[in-house]
Specification:
This protein is α+β, with helices and mostly antiparallel strands and about 90 residues long. It is about 25% helix and about 20% strand. It has a three-stranded antiparallel β-sheet with strand order 4-3-5. A two-stranded antiparallel ribbon has the order 1-2.
């Protein structure tokens, strides 16, 4: 099974247990659960702390080798959780 490293906590985990984020056609960072967005992807644990750590370290810019538009942490977390209204 392929493994990836979480940008937030740096844990190496199975790819299937992480959330993939990639840039859409407009350069905006967004969740890509299907893996269909083209280009490089970045992975984080499905944990708010890992998202916050990755954002604080500008890890998405380095991992994607680009400067994506990164929405506010709350908005991005809402998208990651599928818009289900989870905040924790």
């Amino acid at each position: 099974m392929p493994e990836r490293t979480c940008l937030g906590c740096r844990s190496v985990l199975p790819k299937s247990s992480l959330v993939r984020l990639a840039m859409d056609g407009e350069g905006r960072l967004r969740p890509d659960p299907s893996g269909r967005l083209g280009g490089r992807g970045a992975y984080i644990c499905p944990d708010r702390d890992c998202l916050n750590a990755a954002l604080k370290k500008n890890a998405f810019h380095r991992a994607l080798r680009s400067a994506p538009y990164v929405p506010a942490a709350d908005a991005l977390w809402y998208e990651i959780k599928g818009g289900a209204g989870e905040t924790g």
